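TOKENISE THE FOLD
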Amino acid sequence: MSPLKSCLEDAKTVIQNDNYAVVILSQVLSLLGENLISLQDIKELIDLRPSNLHLILTGNHMPAELTESLDNISVLNDKNTINEH
């Protein structure tokens, strides 16, 4: 099993564990944007969450297909970032 798939399996275990109120998967959406994990992988993580769990996904890629599965979406812009064209 690849290291990323192993991490996804670990995330599934944690998400289904009743001992946590919040799970943060830092930069998981960036992995999706780099095609290192699939949209289906993310949807499975979202579908596994119990109603009492706050699942926070971060990263710089937000496909429109995920918006209906999420309760809240926050977009942060770094005003110090220089956009080069």
Summary: The chain has a mean pLDDT of 88. The radius of gyration is 14 Å. The helical segments are 3-16, 28-33, 39-48.
